[in-house]
Design goal:
This protein has 65 residues and is an all-alpha fold. The chain has helices spanning 6-18, 25-63.
């Protein structure tokens, strides 16, 4: 296997990164906002499920007394 020197390696990295389509600032902002929104919605959902299950377990345990 042929070894590549460090200068050639860096040139190849620059060539490959120039081929990447980078997102615009607007796309990045919208994507970030959507991620935060989904995190909040997931947190609220799981908080609600936890509360309902907690109430059910509490009712079940109180029923046995």
């Amino acid at each position: 296997m042929a070894r590549t020197n460090i200068a050639q390696f860096i040139r190849e990295i620059r060539q490959e990164t120039s081929k990447v389509t980078w997102p615009t600032r607007k796309e990045t902002t919208i994507s970030t906002g959507m991620v935060f929104l989904m995190v909040v919605l997931a947190a609220l959902f799981f908080m609600g499920v936890d509360w309902i299950l907690g109430m059910a377990v509490r009712a079940f345990l109180d029923f046995g007394i």
